[in-house]
Amino acid sequence: MGGCTLNSKMWLQILVGLNIISKAHGFSGGIFPQSCGSLLPEHDAFRPETSNPPFAVAFEFSRHSGDPVTVVLRSEGATRFRGFMLDAQDSSSISSSSPVGQFLLLDSEISRLLDCYGSKGTAVSQRNNQAKSQVKVNWTADGEEKDVIFRATFLERFDRFWDPITVHLPRFPTTMEPSSPEPSSPEPSSPEPTTKTDVTQTWEPTPKNSSEHTKKVAILLMCLDSIVEEVKMEVFNIQTFLFASKPFNFGLIKMSLLITSSLVFAADVASLVLFRVFPFEVAPVALVSVLVCFTSVELLAAFMPIGPSHELKPIWELVLRGCFALHHILTIAVIFLGVVRSMDGDRRQNGGRSWTLIVMVAFSVWILLTQIWNLVLCFLKQTILDRNQTDQSKPTRRIRTRSLSATTVALIITSVTLAVGTAAFAIAVIFGILEEP
């Protein structure tokens, strides 16, 4: 009896698993009849973009009235779409889901027909999830002339898709070309050219690019975050080596750490709120959430009752340097991700490269250099301090004018150079983001 129950449970699990697999495969292949009304993919936890999509709907008419109309779904720039759904509705009764006409496939390798609202061929979707720059299908009216609108949804990737674009079908062109005498000898027949009429989206969106502006502000805050974080790290380095023998040094270090960490914490929290409000994107939210954790550790370190001679001071300093490094790396990752995504559209049209991306790559390399510098100081700290102490203990007649050792001067110059370079790169990226349309 127990074995029978076990077998039943096993078969039930197998059936459930196969059902999930079939649904997942079917959705990537464009079979999702449950989306006939909204045209939106049912991707839980992800909302459609409200900004203008980098895609458009166009129409191509033949010379003869009554012939099929070619509907063209295409990319406006270098951004390509993996999924789509298209239908035609009567504009006078769109709320009641009244399909009009029928679609005919031109390329069955990339598109498939859907039977929505109980009618055959009333919608079209993708057959696979490969990247596409253009899809063409034919559409024929069902006899009676109506005011027809086409709705199209585009999906760039699983977590990025847009609300449906709504476009009106233009009236058949009525302009006639002047007649000319027919030649006496027959000429070889050739395909009749088509007249292409481009139609862009005509729906009224929320304030233009409101979500994109929100993302830009969040990325700008991350750029400011990188500047303050680098200044904090270099000030920490200079104070550690320059004032090593001064009694007020440690209090000064903790005070500057408290001020800069508070500024960074405010920027991180504000960015997290902006990324989380709308639209939700997993990668930036996850990265900034980790950033907030690291900044919290830095703030906690500033309040810890650790003095210059405390036995836990080396561990305290090592933890701080680790937080500095990881914070920098994650901040650059967020900025880089934002810059790359902001280039979807006109900035990447025809495969062009944005100078902002080039600056961002150089910025990333620069940050890598700062982390190498931080790592070198971490391992050579005691050696540098011993050398400074030896240089200062040497007798010299000009001891008043030689208060800093050559090693300390080189350390200060390098730290200041790295901080200024980070600020320059971050400001350049800020200008690049602000120039984005």
Please describe what this structure looks like.
The chain is α+β, with helices and mostly antiparallel strands and 437 residues long. It has two domains: 147 residues, Immunoglobulin-like (Sandwich), CATH 2.60.40; 220 residues. Helices cover 48% and strands 14% of the residues. The strands form two sheets. Strands 3, 5, 6, 8, 9 and 10 form a six-stranded antiparallel beta sheet that branches. Helix 6 runs antiparallel to helix 7. The protein is elongated, with a radius of gyration of 32 Å.
- End-to-end gap: 69 Å
Gyration radius from CA atoms, angstroms: 32 Å
Strand content: 5-15%
Order of helices and strands: HEEEEEEEEEEEHHHHHH
Domains, number: 2
Number of strands: 11
Which overall shape is indicated by the principal axes computed on the Cα atoms?
elongated
Largest sheet: 6 strands, antiparallel
Number of helices: 7
| Low-confidence spans | 20-27, 174-209, 345-352, 397-402
Short description:
By secondary structure, the chain is an alpha+beta fold.
